[in-house]
Amino acid sequence: MAILGEIIKGVIDLTDKFSTESNPVEEQKEVLKSLLNSAKNTAFGRRYNFEKILNEQEPSTLFAQTIPYYDYNKINKEWWSKLHDGEKDITWPGRPDYFALSSGTTGKTSKRIPVTNDMITAIRSAGISQVAALANFDLPAAFFEKGILMLGSSTDLTEKDDHLEGEISGISASKIPFWFRSYYKPGEEISQIDDWDERVQKISDNAKNWDIGALSGIPSWLELMLQKVIKDHNVKNIHEIWPNLQVYTSGGVAFGPYEKSFNALMGKPITVIDTYLASEGFIAFQERPETHAMKLVTNNGIYFEFVPFKPEYIQSDGSLTDDAPALTLAEVEKNQDYALVISTVSGAWRYLIGDTIEFIDIERAEIKITGRTKFFLNTVGSQLSVNKLDDAVKHLETVFKVKIPEYTLCAKRFDDDFYHSWYLGCENNLDIEKVVDELDSYLKDANKNYKVARSKALKGVKVNLVAPNVFHEWNGANKKKGGQVKMERVMGEEKFKEWEDFVLKLA
Question: Which of 82, 284, 422, 423 qualifies as a cystine partner to 276, CB 3.0-4.6 A?
Answer without folding.
Answer: 284
